[in-house]
Amino acid sequence: MKNNELNERRLQATPRGIGVMCGFYADRAENATLWDIEGNEVIDFAAGIAVLNTGHRHPKVIAAIEKQLQSFTHTAYQIVPYASYVTLAERINERVPVNGPAKTAFFSTGAEAVENAVKIARACTRRPGLITFGGAFHGRTFMTMALTGKVAPYKIGFGPFPGSVYHAQYPNPLHGVTTTDALNSLERIFKADIAPDQVAAIILEPVQGEGGFNVASTDFMQALRTLCDTHGILLIADEVQTGFARTGKLFAMEHHGVQPDLITMAKSLAGGMPLSAVSGRAEVMDAPAPGGLGGTYAGNPLAVAAAHAVLDV
Question: pTM of the prediction?
């Protein structure tokens, strides 16, 4: 089989909305190397969009999945629970940079994690409003598209989006946006769009990905924490991409010494298996009623086993 032949079949079989970057097709992979179906060898700098921090097919991850595969592959945690989910939550709770005891819930995708963080924040604060930032990427579902601060290609033709979402400026020295400018844009939102006592959460990526790999400064993060504390707003760190040592620490927020109320994670959490999570202060995480959180595949046991191995690595 040839790459160009398979590409012609792809164009006939799958919709154009699924944009594909590479013109070659994966056959096998090991650590940072991919081989395509024609035997060509390439270095994989994309890592499945920041998913493979432990590399392709890490032996500990493979062993963990194989072992779990011999026990069971699915029960739905909300129906028949399993210990590995609980122990993984305990391990993450020990590591997340939040103030006080933490709790963790597992899901399947990064967008699911962000959506559930929004649900938890609204349940906890009894407020509707959400503030995010221009250049942000938070997912492709309707709520996460609303949070995303980039129209093309993610929002074109898909509206209207959920309301009560407002976009501030993200500090970006390359484009002349200072920390003061970004904080002033938040004050403009409070004056023109929504009162601060109606805002449930401010959500941001510690390092924007789609926005151009923009790094939030420590003074900006500290100012956000103070602003949120002043107005009773929850601070959500979207660490779907920056989590699991992507920035040199397990979570990027650790660089700032600032503790968010909620943290979302996915991507490298399970070394290539579909798993995401929301962690946060226990009293915040407990706000939704029983049954308010979950999902049929949320916390899949194969993915949970892989995540244990990733933490071991």
Answer: 0.97
For residues 70 and 73, give the distance between their C-alpha atoms in angstroms, rounded to a whole number. 8
Counting beta carbons within 10 angstroms of the beta carbon of residue 20, is it exposed (0 to 12), middle (13 to 18) or buried (19 or more)? exposed
3-state secondary structure of 4: helix
As a whole number of angstroms, the distance between CA 75 and CA 82 comes to: 9
Count of residues in the chain: 313
- What's the token pair of residue 44? 């994989």
Question: How far is the C-alpha of 108 from the C-alpha of 274, rounded, in Å?
Answer: 5
Per-residue pLDDT at 177 exceeds 90: yes
Token readout for 52 is 């493979």
What 8-state DSSP symbol labels residue 113? H
* CA 137 and chain centroid, separation: 9
**pLDDT 10s digits, 240-273:** 999 999 999 999 999 999 999 999 999 999 999 9
